[in-house]
Amino acid sequence: MVASLLFSVTAEAHPAVEHWPVPTSAVSEVELPVSEPALRAAILSGLSVAVERTDPVYRTDGFVSRDGSGHEDWTPVLAEESANALFGRAFFRDPAHSRELFAHFMGKAIVSSYYRSEERALDYGVTFSISLAAVDEAKTRVSIRTLESSVGVGREFNVHAMGFVPKSEPVPASPLDEYKLLVYVAHLAGVALNPLPKEEARARR
Known about the structure:
Elements: E1 6-7, E2 18-19, E3 29-32, H1 36-46, H2 49-54, H3 56-61, E4 64-66, E5 72-74, E6 78-80, H4 89-92, E7 101-104, E8 110-117, E9 120-136, E10 139-158, E11 163-170, H5 175-188
Antiparallel strand pairs: 1-10, 2-8, 3-10, 4-5, 6-7, 7-9, 8-9, 9-10, 10-11
């Protein structure tokens, strides 16, 4: 029996995976002037379809994804905690993660603000951890960490699907997409961080 029914058919080599430069402002951690319980509640409430759909900040500077025809539109990023995890159940099996939040896109790839190929932003599959640490009663340090990340690099033939399906390969974390999530988390806390410079925010092109 064939060991694997998933194999690649290479018609031509895919272009090299590159990335946009990272400005010094693109950090993955910041202290916000809000208590840890209040920030946690704001993130769980705000990282939701209902809020992001109507929030002009998210609709302007949030994440987008592509459909099969290449059309781009906003896509929600959702947060889960250990008590009600669905997509993050495996993540929360580790007790060390019990106080973190799991952020995901319901399995969809986003258009990366960092990875590109031939000047075109690549589809980027990613999940994040959001860590909150109380500095004092009125200040919290929030950190964004990438858990899994991969980029789309063409297509491969799938025997089960009887056709070509997207092919991906693992890549290091995207600092620009971590920062993009941090910007929106800060917005939910009432703090305005600078969005990505237009030169780096090429995921919409």
